[in-house]
Amino acid sequence: MPFIFEDCKREAAALLQNVATELETKDLNKAGRIFRAVLQSIRDRLPVHDAIHFAAQLPVFWKGIYFDQYDPDKVPVKIEDAGDWINYIRSKNAFAANNDFQQDEEIMAAFRAVFQALQRTMTNEQLQLVRESLNEDIQELLAA
Fold it and tell me: Domain of life, per the record (predicted)?
């Protein structure tokens, strides 16, 4: 199977556009920062095996972002409640935390938006594994 860079680029751009649409923004840089923060937060909450299976469904470009600064020896991170989850997402990107989602509600909305965009790309089984890796009150953020 040949590697066609333009196809990889197109797939990555389509996913980013889906995230931007869910975030209700035309600013793709903002959407990218938010997507990265949420994506890496999800990654860190998963056991290594599940994190790898999750990544397998991402476009090549986003796999690189997903695994950037990944430390398998430090996962899954302990998250006690929704407040910890919000702060964890905030910690993943200082620029985004200071500019894109300063309020907790903005982070919760970003988490929901990214998850909704991923639902268009990933299997329900994979997203169910992600849901199950989250505490119950964090799962409730997806339903809000």
Answer: Bacteria
